[in-house]
Amino acid sequence: MTRIVLALAQRALRNALRRPQYLAPLIIFPSLFLAVNTGGLERTTELPGFPDVRGFLDFQLSAAITQSLLIGGVQAGIAQALEIEGGFFDRLATSPIPRTAIVFGRVLATVPLALFQVAAFLVIGLAFGAHIEGGWAGVALVLLIGSVAGAGFAAIGVALALRARNASLVQGIFPIAFVVLFLSSAFFPRDLLSAPASWIAAYNPLSYIAEGMRNPIIASISSEAVLEGLAAAAGLLGVMVGISIAALRGRLREA
Amino acid sequence: MAAIETVGLEREFKGGLKAVGGVDISIAPGEVYGFLGPNGAGKTTTVRMLVTLLRPTGGEARVAGHDVAREPDAVRRRIGVALQDAALDLLMTGRELMELQAKLHGFAPRDVRPRADALIDRVGLVEAQDRRVGTYSGGMRRRLDLAMALIHEPEVLFLDEPTTGLDPVSRRTLWEEVSRLKDEGTTVFLTTQYLEEADQLADRVGIINAGLLVAEGTPAELKAEVGIPHLEVTFADGSETGRAREVLTQFGELRPPQPGSDVSVGLASGATGVAPVVRALDEAGVIVGSLELVEPTLDDVFVEKTGRHLEGAGDDQDPDAAAGPEPA
Description:
The complex is a heterodimer of chains A (255) and B (328).
Chain A: H1 2-17, H2 20-41, H3 56-86, H4 88-93, H5 100-127, H6 135-164, H7 167-171, H8 174-182, H9 197-203, H10 205-218, H11 223-254
Chain B: E1 4-12, E2 18-27, E3 32-36, H1 43-50, E4 58-63, E5 66-67, H2 72-78, E6 79-82, H3 94-104, H4 109-122, H5 138-149, E7 156-160, H6 168-183, E8 187-191, H7 195-201, E9 204-209, E10 212-217, H8 219-226, E11 230-235, H9 241-248, E12 254-255, E13 263-266, H10 274-283, E14 288-294, H11 298-306
Parallel strand pairs in B: 3-8, 3-9, 6-7, 7-8
Antiparallel strand pairs in B: 1-2, 1-4, 4-5, 9-10, 11-13, 11-14, 12-13
Helix pairs in contact in B: 3-4, 3-5, 8-11
């Protein structure tokens, strides 16, 4: 099983790297958003109740990372849907492999990509004057939460692809993913959100993922924020992998 | 034990559409079985059930001795599958795909490369092995697809329309490979829309229509069912037709001549009966302009059994009368 999953993950990763048109948005789009937000909303850090940060860029970095990871999840879903449309999925399904390996391989492939995405945004942030208060340990924690969250988002994309079987339809979820992200505390502190956004943000796992990655960047490491972020990412991953596997079984039953 | 055996195999989709309505097939090991049918007849649904991509909703199917519904893993280990439209990953190179396929079939790491090498060589893709599959021609993709299906030396090989859209040279290459597999004892389940392909390659042919198997047998048996060969004769002098008809009635039943022909006579003995006819006409002083022995074709069988021509029947062409080589 492990060999099969690794082989499929290696293939999925290699293919992702061979599609620059899918890779570029992972960095470009959130970077533009980060630049616009940081340039225009710097003074919001002076609002009463805003966390004590060196600058808005420090605060926004985890939002950009989360946004990038979400786009990565959509790309994983599109790749999975294209595989179904092109028939390669059928080849895998007629191979003597555990069928869950198809899901695990695709999800695992996003981990190195997610690590790259997190590292890229940390470098971009540092280059433009951000600070990582948690030091190297903080970097490691952001990488850890980011990689688990990236895999979780990929599992969402895979689940959608297995249900929709259509790349265009999967691409259609992109705006929805954004709405969910805006209904979290990724872009603004939860305490400064008004109802009903604040209620939704309190139950939105993206809030905890973004806050979990934000904590080691803007402050000394708080185990509570980090563990909540990690738990949210791991919970999302577990639930979505389960849903993906159920969707896979459903697809193979109904095909 | 049959290599493939189905008893009352059925598949009903949501909404009550019954794509396959009780198919019984028994294919012996080492046999090449041609599976013909018009679009929507149930061919692909049948194949997808046999390769474990689709669960039957009725009946039973055993492939390589294992039940497709109850032992799908055992079936997958014993079959090779090349589905319609060569399901390949266009971003990968031929070698990468071959090696991936070997890994998926559980080859030990040290055996992956040699096995991939052997298959790449077998299908003539050594030069192109490190190029992305997206740059391959249709024929090259089909050969790669076939090679991947053969990576684990399957007992039963499913080829779903393997030559559709290929140029004659590529079709001939695929045909040769199928013949080679037959010589090696591999059972081949071949769906095709080219009647000539089924005629050339298949030991037996099954025709499916509206989800039911409407005819089965060797190509010769099926052709014999729909009629005997007939001789179409034209004469140098049209006024000799009456005398010629008297002579020809000794050899068989006269039938309406085809357009451009003067007389048509059934000739049960086929090609061996032509020489006596010519001698008799000569002795009667009838000068023959042209003479053509027309044998029943699988298309005649197809029309007889399904009421329509097979979609690809008009595309049949002899690969020996080939066009130029495929692009590299």
